[in-house]
Amino acid sequence: MKQMLARTALLLAALTAVVFGAEKECGPCIPEACSPPTKCLAGMVKDRCGCCFVCGQLEGQLCDYEAASLPQKYKHGHCGDNMECRLRNDLPPGDPPEALCFCLEEEPLCGNDGQTYGTSCQLNQARNKRRDDGLHAVSRGPCESGEYTYMS
């Protein structure tokens, strides 16, 4: 009788996990089975299991904040290059917590294309979007041209 109750409890737990979208456990890592990501504007990061490379989340996108007990902890993915995932502090009381990707260097940069980028992450995003490895910052602060590039 105890074994039957234990099996029933395990079955219910498994069904609950499937129905309510519980996180999948990581299996063995087989790098050869990983699909290579393409068009990663924020660069590539390892998946939550640390096995395959995937595209990183862009600045301002929702991300997986692993230090908090968020619902669906592994839903969005990790932030891209030179970014970190931070809990939002601008939500009304009672709203569920969520986290966004923030660039670690939050100052404008002047690119060698004459455009001002709000952050180094936005400059990197433009470089990756254009596939222009030559795009780089020439100075800190806005360009003299006054043209400002906003990446979304």
UniProtKB/TrEMBL annotation:
Segment forming the signal sequence: 1-21
UniProt entry tagged with the keyword Secreted: yes
Annotated localization: Secreted
Protein name from the UniProt record: Insulin-like growth factor-binding protein-related protein 1
UniProt keyword list: Disulfide bond, Immunoglobulin domain, Secreted, Signal
Domain Kazal-like positions: 80-145
Domain IGFBP N-terminal: residue ranges: 22-104
The organism of origin for this protein: Limulus polyphemus (Atlantic horseshoe crab)
Taxonomy, superkingdom: Eukaryota
Principal location: secreted
